[in-house]
Amino acid sequence: xxxxxxxxxxxxxxxxxxxxxxxxxxxxxxxxxxxxxxxxxxxxxxxxxxxxxxxxxxxxxxxxxxxxxxxxxxxxxxxxxxxxxxxxxxxxxxxxxxxxxxxxxxxxxxxxxxxxxxxxxxxxxxxxxxxxxxxxxxxxxxxxxxxxxxxxxxxxxxxxxxxxxxxxxxxxxxxxx
Length: 177
Ligand code: NI
Hints:
The structure is a single chain. By secondary structure, the chain is of the alpha+beta class. It contains three helices and eight strands; from the N terminus they run αβββββββαβα. The protein has a five-stranded antiparallel β-sheet, with helices on both faces. A three-stranded antiparallel β-sheet has the order 4-5-8. β4 (96-101) and β5 form a beta hairpin. 34% of the residues are buried. The mean pLDDT is 95.
């Protein structure tokens, strides 16, 4: 069952704080199968990233990047495919920038969200190998968006100017929602 149903805003399962991946799951078939399902589901929906809670799995796992130029974000720089478990984010400085976001759980809408411009993040891949990256711009934005899902936060809660929130086909007629 590789392509899974994506839960939509209003589903209480999107509001939970997800559980850490237990150490015994790393390198195992269950976690590998979850990553395959997340990847297949993200690709089918042309997502920039997806978090396990979006397919109803209450674990601190997100994946993002790796799909080259994304039709939903055609102007965004490419991000390497990343599996990130039990992430810890540390902003570098206080600078925030506003940028447009969408979400597979909030189909058809876009909103402008302030995010930290630079941060470092660390966590584990599906085999339990720890890694750390310093990133900025769109990469930093995607990580913050996906990791918000692990704390039950959907991006509309981060929109500060509600005049900058609306339907994709109205705001950006050329874009795929
Ligand atoms: Ni999302």
